[in-house]
Each structure stands twice: as C-alpha cells, then as structure tokens.
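Researcher: Structure prediction, please.
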Amino acid sequence: MRALATFLFCAFVLPLYAKTSAVLDSSVTRITVKGVDKMSVTEFRRWEIRDKDGYRYCVFNDYENAFRKVKSLRYTIYDANGNRVKRFGLGDAMDVQFNAPYEVTDSRMLYLDPDYRGFPFSVEIETVVVCDQFLDFPDWMPRYSYNMEVKFATLELECPSGYRFRCKSFNGKIDSTTVQRSGERTYVWTLRNLEATGPYLHESSFGKDQPRVSISPFEFSMGGVKGSYSSWAEFGDWYLALNKEQSPLSEKTKQDLRGIRQKSADERELIRNVYKYMQQKTRYVSIQLGIGGFKALPVEKVDRNGYGDCKALSQYMHVLLTEVGVSSNYVLAKAGSDASDVVADFPSNQFNHIFVAVPLAADTTWLECTSQITPASYLGRFTDDRNVLWIAPGKSGIIRTPCFTAPESVCKSASVVRLDPEGNAVMTVSRRQGGFYFDEMAAYNSMSASQQERFNSSKFSYPDFVIGSFKYSVLGADRLLALDFGLKVNSLARRAGDRLLLPLNIFQPVDG
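Model: Predicted structure follows.
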C-alpha cells in the first residue's frame, strides 16, 4: 500500500518537474553609458533549441518608441551539424504597431519568426539598441522563463570613471569584477551553469527566485527635467517637477465643484462626491506618445475632452480636490494582481501606475482614478498589499497599501429553490461579495452580454441548466457586489419512489 501511495505521489509530481527545451549557451549584454541621457545596449545570445516547446526562445521580438531605437539585428540559424541554414537582418523583422483599443502609443513591435523546425538547431541573435533618454537600465535576469538552461551569461556596464549608480544582486550565484581603463570603468557580472526550472503558478514567484541584477543611475534626464535616484524623496521631486499643474479648470467645472462642496456634509463626503464627479466626467485612455509615457496630459485638456491615462486622471483628480480645499497626494505603484513587489531599499523606476490618496485624521482615502465604478477607498488586487511610493514635496517615501482581511473578503449566498414533482428546479440565487471578491465588478463592467453569459455559466456546475435572468449592482455604502441570478435546473433532485433526493450541496451536484 505504501509503495502504491509513493507511486501515485510521483505520478502527480513528475509533470511539474523542469525539462530542458532550450539552452542559452552564451549571453553577453553590454550597457554603454554615454551621458546622463544617452546609452546603448548591445546583446548577443547563442541558443540551442531542442524541441518545439523551446521554439519560443528563438522568436525575436523587441520594441521601439520615441526614445528607444533598435539600430541593428543579426540573426543566424545553424543546423544540428553546425551548418548555417538561414540568416536574417533588421529589414526582415515585421514592424507593427500593436496596442489595445484603449491605448494610444508610438511604440512599435519588431517581430521575427524564423520558421525553422529542424530540431535540434542553434541560433545566434545580436542586437544593438540606442536610447536618447532613459530613466533606468534594463534588469538582467538570464533565466527569464522556465524550461531553459543557462550555461554562461555576462552583464557589462561601461561608463565614465566617477559615474554614480546603484546596483543590487538577487539570489546569489553571480560573480562580479571591475576593470579600470583610461577615462572609463567597466563593471562585469557573470553567471554560469544554471539548470532549467519548471513552470511556476505565479509569475511574480518565479521572478523572486531567479538570480538577477538591477542597476539604477544616480542621475538622469527625461523631458528636459533632470532627476536623481539618490533617494526616494529626490525621485518624487522629479516626478512633481515633470508634472507641474499649470492648466486651469474651466469656469463650468469650478461652478460644479462649488455646488458639490455646498451639498457635502463633511470632508469625507466631499471627497466621495468629487471622486464620483470625476468618474462620471472622464474615461480611461492609455496615452504613451513621446514623453507622455511619463508626463501627464494638461489638466485643461482632460477637463475639456474627458479622457486621460492614469497620470492625467490622477492629476485631474488632485486639481479638483485642491479646488475644493482638500489636500491630496500622488501614489506610484507597480500594479497587477501578479506583479512583483517594489524593492524598498532600491530607489529606481519600478512603477507602472499612479493613483491618488487623501490623508485624513483617522485613515487614508484611496482613489483609483482610471475606474468609473470603483468606490472611494477601495483598492482591488491591482494595487492592494504592496510597496508604493507616496509622493510629497521633499519627503516622498515607500509605504504599504492596505490588504484585504479575511472578515471583509466574504462571498455570501442566499437561495430559494422550488421543485416540481419531477425534480426540476426554479432557483433564485443572491450573492453578496466583498473585499477580495468585489474585484469581479470590474470584470462584469468590461464584458459584453455574451461574455457575461459565459462567465456566469462557469459559476454553476449543473449538467442541465439555463440562466433566465441576471443583474449586478454595487451596494456602495458597504462596498459589496450584488449578483442576482434566476435559474432553471433540470433534474436537480432524483426520484426515489415517492421521495425526491437532493444532493448534499446543491451548488456542486454530482453528475450521475
């Protein structure tokens, strides 16, 4: 019996083990700093592609924008005997603009699929990228995905003598040296013989475990505004300097705000009402044109046109609150339900999102400005329980956003079931979801009717049922998502003589 248990355990565990589908034989990344706003990145990689699961590593993709250009590409394929069979250059890569419907961007994707399947084969890829402005250096993590093995990888930073930067190594196994040449210095990090690892359930967990190096310059320049990473406070001041609020609100908006202030009983209600006003007046559009990736649209344009990205909408919200006499702060975050946490002792550009916070005497009101439905002070899985940068003139610093507690993250259901003599059922199901589960509100709000129908059907596991009615709403006072279903379920109960037998759990029936 023990042998059988051991066999079953191994049978379930083995598929989770890593296999080596690709080997990174050699990787050399060279970052050359030419000034506070100029650098180039040269990268050479030699891959051994062993099977179809490793093919993704030989598909080239990179991007360009107003500040970043791919200057050259050399791509060569060798068969199993070392014979060259294909060669490509930059002109062979597809140049496409690929963005979501809610995004306006000048970024372009370069993509090259070699369309070669003679496994095993080898690939050499060399690229040169030049940057006219930059906020940070690319993170170096040679084993950046699963089922790949690393034989040798090195990172080189070439910079003028006296150039100041901060670096941090994670998870050991990395050797470092320094070479001094006339007028410049080269820092080298080397990694050898890293075995393949299997897939992880969460992407953030995978990144936390990998040997990697992060480098951050002390000084940088973006949009003509010089900044510093010498401390979080310095970085916060740069963000405020880049996004000075100079555009006025319209007289109509000012009049609306005066009316809101008169109707609000206290400061907390005033904040909620101004937030609702902003939500009803604006919509989210991601704008990444030129410096727009870091600099917000002018407040005047957001006020007039009613759209903006997270920076623009947050700045607009901040100005609206200022107009009614409420002080607020920007908060920079690394958003995403599976995002890795910001490293608190490493001042650098680790952020991809911004929202607004209002410090009150008893607590803080959080305002997610990109959502038209999120209640005031609700942070979903997109930005909850993580390190964020609280922006304040001269004293920006890392704080922690609130996390969902077990008592508030509850899904309650109340149901009424009416059976006919054949065991068929008409059911009403009312669910109230709070905390962690409230996030489904955003999903419902973004779905079409057909998508909602498929999503709702996945919530029930009856063999034969129809959802006849459905509605959802927000109970704002308690920040609860209300879901109300009307179902018809065939053969929910089974006849046994003159009795009807119901499953022990009618929401997880056993299919006969």
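Model: The two ends are 30 Å apart (CA to CA).
Researcher: Thanks, that helps.
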